[in-house]
Amino acid sequence: MPDLTVTKFSHVKPGDTPYLPGGLRDFFLYRDLGIAEATHGKVIAHLVRANMAPENGTGWHRHEADFQIVIMITGWARFMYGDKETLVEAGDVVHQSPGISHYLFDYSPDMEYLEIVSPADFKSIDVAPVCEIPPCTPWES
């Protein structure tokens, strides 16, 4: 049985793990960075990339997590955190406090962010709408 108090060394290069569908949202692609395995599920880190134009966004939800940050690498995304619209652009870092109701409703075609969450098997829970959602920015064909 592995010692779960000790994390493992991990080094993942860009070609080591592909961007794959099948994550939390079907309109995004996810690239695993090996952190969940290295920390025995204490933390997950993955890159999230836009895969399809926003239509309905993520819907209102919250996460059962102890810690979550989003670091925007390229592009931008528009979130609702409670009733406050927040534009998150390349270089921005957002700490999503535990249990905050939010909705990612719009993003650029080149959006990519690093998400780090603890625990790795965090849950996403749908919640009642907090407010109206602004319209999305159409992608050019």
Automatic annotation (TrEMBL):
Pfam families noted in UniProt: Cupin_2 (PF07883)
InterPro entries: Cupin_2, RmlC-like_jellyroll, RmlC_Cupin_sf
Gene3D superfamilies, alphabetized: Jelly Rolls
Residue span(s) of domain Cupin type-2: 50-104
Superkingdom per UniProt: Bacteria
CDD domains: cupin_bxe_c0505
UniProt name for this protein: Cupin 2, conserved barrel domain protein
Organism annotation: Polaromonas naphthalenivorans (strain CJ2)
